[in-house]
């Protein structure tokens, strides 16, 4: 990999793994069509892919739902990267593993992070941080396509930062983008605190707790607005998607006429599966839900 001469010294800055460490562990296997970072599969793609995804989500579901989805995907990605760093470099000091999030964000070409303030105490769940994001791929692509934004647009990166940091604390860490290059600012700026320090009544905290972190099956605003006929059709499609992994087993149970107990964690789709099986077996009956217990079928 080619690196500009004026960047070489920068590669060894910070804790371990440094950018140089990460680049040294990156392997390109052209015969397999794969790129790996310390054994983990990576993908090199054009920056426009993320911008296309954001545009399509906004077009199909609206700006708010698009933001929620990208915050959620970023949050999951951040948590996965934090766990990856801890597995791949198991002897790291916890502080180095924590700050490695800024470096892995840079080595993937997402953004260059400048730390203004970073104060953390893992034992006492205390954290506050203030960072500048230079050349954010989300902000630059948005501005290139749409001109100046009216609000911050680095949704996936903000979610990523929250997900990565939260792995190291027993409290949720949330970041807010308080300025954004897409709005005409020189760089993006993000501030991170524990959810308690932000306050449970903070509007962004409520979005994160009520919408970003939920695991229950959801339908989009577009589906909800299409009227009774379209809504029923969309709900049927969603139900089919939820039931698909266990469709064969449900079909066998329906044909056998066996009594069935469906169990699983909240949000796993148990009630949808029970409703599907109930419709097949008892077209004229009613399905009753027992709250706090497994979903059951009753005539």
Automatic annotation (TrEMBL):
Pfam hit, one: V4R
Domain of life: Bacteria
SMART domains, A to Z: V4R (SM00989)
4-vinyl reductase 4VR domain segment(s): 132-194
Protein name per its UniProtKB record: XylR N-terminal domain-containing protein
Organism for this UniProt entry: Sulfitobacter porphyrae
């Amino acid at each position: 990999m080619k690196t500009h001469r004026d960047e070489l010294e920068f590669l060894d800055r910070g804790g371990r793994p440094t950018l140089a460490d990460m680049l040294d562990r990156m392997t390109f296997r052209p015969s397999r069509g794969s790129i790996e970072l310390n054994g983990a599969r990576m993908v090199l793609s054009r920056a426009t892919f993320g911008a296309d995804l954001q545009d399509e989500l906004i077009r199909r579901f609206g700006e708010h739902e698009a933001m929620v989805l990208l915050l959620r995907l970023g949050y999951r990605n951040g948590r996965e990267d934090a766990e990856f760093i801890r597995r791949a470099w198991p002897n790291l000091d916890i502080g180095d593993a924590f700050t490695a999030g800024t470096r892995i964000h840079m080595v993937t070409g997402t953004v260059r992070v400048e730390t203004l303030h970073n104060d953390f105490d893992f034992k006492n769940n205390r954290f506050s941080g203030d960072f500048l994001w230079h050349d954010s791929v989300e902000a630059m692509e948005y501005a290139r396509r749409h001109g100046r934004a009216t609000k911050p647009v680095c949704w996936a990166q903000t979610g990523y930062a929250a997900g990565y940091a939260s792995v190291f604390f027993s409290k949720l860490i949330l970041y807010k983008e308080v300025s954004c290059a897409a709005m005409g600012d020189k760089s993006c700026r993000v501030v991170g605190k524990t959810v308690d320090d932000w306050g449970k009544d903070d509007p962004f905290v409520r979005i994160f707790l009520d919408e970003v972190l939920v695991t229950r099956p959801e339908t989009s605003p577009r589906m909800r607005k299409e009227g009774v006929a379209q809504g029923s059709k969309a709900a049927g499609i969603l139900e089919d998607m939820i039931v698909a992994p266990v469709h064969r087993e449900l079909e066998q149970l329906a044909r056998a006429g066996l009594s069935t107990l469906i169990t699983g964690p909240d949000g796993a789709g148990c009630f949808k599966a029970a409703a599907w099986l109930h419709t097949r077996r008892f077209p004229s009956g009613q399905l009753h839900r027992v709250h706090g217990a497994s979903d059951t079928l009753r005539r």
